[in-house]
Specification:
By secondary structure, the protein is mainly β. It is 0% helix and 50% strand. It has strands spanning 3-7, 10-13, 18-25, 33-39, 46-52, 57-59, 67-72, 77-82, 91-98, 114-115, 119-124. A hairpin with a 6-residue loop joins strand 4 and strand 5 (46-52). The chain starts with a strand and ends with a strand.
């Protein structure tokens, strides 16, 4: 059974930083796409950053230059370093994984089969 657990969320002031972590267990496929998604109240879930086993990396335009996605395969972990946070970054953040190697679909939530429960990020102005 694939299980994803996010951590690292919290409350920060605008301009601050947070590092989200996602620990993945039970995943046995050699290929993957992993991503960070977020959902603010009253809005749909949107892709923030994604990385594949082909080392393709994509970012949403709204976070380019501020967020960095990375992985540690030895620890089965996915990270999202978030810098220069803005109030509009406030949302529940989810990590997800799928056994297909995406390129243009890395930020498309409908293609991901496995999801974590989310971690809340709140940025105050």
């Amino acid at each position: 059974q694939v299980r994803l657990v996010e951590s690292g969320g919290g409350s920060v002031q605008a301009g601050g930083s947070l590092r989200l972590s996602c620990t993945i267990s039970g995943y046995t496929f050699s290929t993957y796409s992993m991503g960070w998604f977020r959902q603010a109240p009253g809005k749909g879930r949107e892709g923030v950053a994604g990385i594949s086993s082909a080392q393709t990396i994509r970012y949403a335009d709204s976070v380019k230059g501020r967020f960095i996605i990375s992985q540690d395969n030895a620890k089965n972990a996915l990270y999202l370093q978030m810098n220069n946070l803005k109030p509009e970054d406030s949302a529940m953040y989810y990590c997800a994984i799928d056994n297909r190697e995406y390129n243009s679909f890395l930020l498309a939530e409908k293609w991901f089969d496995y999801w974590g429960q989310g971690t809340q990020v709140t940025v105050s102005s």
